[in-house]
Specification:
single chain; alpha+beta; Ribosomal Protein S5, domain 2; Alpha-Beta Plaits; 12 strands; globular; binds cytidine-5'-monophosphate
């Protein structure tokens, strides 16, 4: 046990899938993945206060989100209590900035932030490896956000292998005014053929810091399934590609977010080109080396 803390602020980044191949269907209903995830500097924020009672009370800036066990933040808190036998409660205030149902992993990142925040607030002293085990049980992407940075993730997505990347990468993200259900997108995946995309071009170019080559290596197997649900997203991707400013354009996760990889000196021009499409909210984001992170109190993020 460690000394409990009274108020913990945690910032929870978004992710982009730079590569996502579906290797097969599993008996448990999930899909076996090979994906490269990149944490980026767009953040949700959590304020965690420990309580003496047993309740976990969530409040959220986004009224459409549930604040009971329908919210993965509450499920993460309960999973941590279950794992450790801790009998304390908590108040958690969540400020959403990451667009939802956009393939950016916001809910998973919030869950990872909850585990880190409550591990400190309750003075549990779980190691990174122990937190990873709890994270994997809470959701497929949650473990990635504990370490963040750039990682190759396999299994359901919960087996995380950190990658070294040369330099930072700049992206422009377009989030159309509607979301896509991950479950529905996976449900639309047709029969998996034997052909498999390889992550090797992307991995080599990330290690070398080669933007043009990385642009060619971007890939997402879920695009066809999501575009069948929402044909207008294929048009967003094509229109972004036709601007000619991006080294590559790809969907993240199961959508609806579409991102372009930018040449660093053309980041602003790329943002303007994407905004000119009037396809949704536009974010200029950068790769970051970390995942969820405790913040000194009183500091705010962008
Ligand atoms: O694990 P998580 O709750 O984030 O997954 C949401 C849904 O996405 C699952 O219920 C499942 O339908 C689908 N999924 C999948 N294979 C994965 C990850 C998610 O089929 N590897």
């Amino acid at each position: 046990m460690k000394t409990p803390c009274s108020l913990i602020a945690v910032r929870c980044p978004a992710k982009l899938n730079l590569f996502l191949e579906v290797l097969g269907r599993r008996a448990d209903g999930y899909h076996e993945l090979d994906t490269v995830m990149q944490a980026v500097d767009l953040y949700d924020e959590l304020l965690v206060t420990p309580l003496d009672g047993e309740g976990v009370w969530l409040s959220c800036s986004e009224p459409s989100l549930p604040t009971d066990e329908g919210n993965v933040v509450v499920r993460a808190a309960l999973a941590l209590r279950e794992r450790t036998g801790c009998r304390r409660g908590a108040r958690v205030a969540l400020t959403k900035r990451i667009p939802m149902q956009a393939g950016l992993g916001g809910g998973s990142s919030d869950a990872a932030g909850t585990l880190v925040g409550l591990n400190a607030a309750w003075g549990l002293g779980l190691t990174a490896r122990e937190l990873c085990e709890v994270a994997a049980a809470v959701g497929s992407d949650v473990a990635f956000f504990l370490g963040g940075g750039t990682a190759r993730c396999t299994g359901r997505g919960e087996r995380v292998e950190p990658l070294d990347v040369k330099g930072g990468f700049h992206y422009v993200l377009v989030c159309p005014p509607f979301g896509v259900s991950t479950r529905e997108a996976y449900g639309r995946l047709g029969a998996l053929t034997s052909g498999r995309a390889s992550a090797s071009i992307l991995l080599g170019s990330l290690a070398a810091g080669s933007i043009e080559e990385a642009g060619l290596g971007l890939f997402n197997r879920l695009e066809d399934a999501t575009f069948a649900l929402r044909p207008e997203l294929r048009a967003v991707k094509e229109r972004m590609a036709h601007t000619g400013v991006f080294a590559g354009v790809c969907m993240t996760g199961s959508g609806s977010g579409i991102f372009g990889l930018c040449r660093p000196d053309e980041w602003e021009r790329s943002r303007e080109a994407a905004a000119g499409l009037r396809a949704g909210r536009v974010f200029a984001v950068r790769s970051i080396l970390r995942g969820v992170e405790r913040r000194p109190e009183g500091r705010t993020t962008k």
